[in-house]
Amino acid sequence: MTNAQPSAEGVPADAMRRLAELSPGKPGSIFTSDLSVNEFLLVREAGFKPIGLVLGSSIYHVGIQIGRWGKNQELETLSQAMYHARELAMTRMEAEADALAADGIVGVRLDVEMKEFGSDIAEFIAVGTAVKAEEGAGGGGVDNWRNNKNQPFTSDLSGQDFWTLIRAGYAPLGMVMGSCVYHIAHQRFWQAVGNIGQNVEIPQFTEALYDARELAMSRMQAEAEALHAEGIVGVQLLSLPHRWGGHTTEFFAIGTAIRPLRADHTIAKPQLVLPLVDN
Length: 279
Fold this sequence. Notes:
alpha+beta, four-stranded antiparallel beta sheet, 8 strands
């Protein structure tokens, strides 16, 4: 995503009124959350208080890509569209969390729904639970849970994984992603005929899929580097065909960038316990 700070731009007035009702400390305010009961309890045990459900949405028209369909190639117009639409949804979700003065957003889901308004129109939705760190969260000594862009952290980890991460001495920085829409060239006629009945690798398909995945992964990694992350956990590498046909697909990489809570942090090695043996 870009370095732009989240703002209320694009967030409906009704959403801002709902967020005002959820403001922490307001008499009679209650939180909303899509966390399961177990996830809610583990997030609380990790030292974070849910504030409210936050979301961002963008209905996006994906443009037309012109290219040479006889060769493997990235469809850059489509890659940019899929990336920008998700970024809009994520930024609006972060803006809602910012309005609640949240430290982060946990359990984020990022979905794409193709709409019947037209064959090239899709809604991109980001949903998660905004949380506020309580005193002593993460073992204490952490003054600011926001990332280096002063944005609330975002994480698509489950409540269980979030609890484990905090207990291990790490903090999420933000969800990072990379997208690549790629067209895979058709086999030439005689090549296809020659493969009939044989076990044989199809090099042009292998190279195309390999290249597309590498582009998506490298873009995700670049986002993590911009957050000064130590690493990325919970990575998913998805192949999403959408409505483009069998030879065009989107490779989408997403994960949670993390940092250690303390510069000198090390994870304690588990102690080896030997069974007692009678002589």
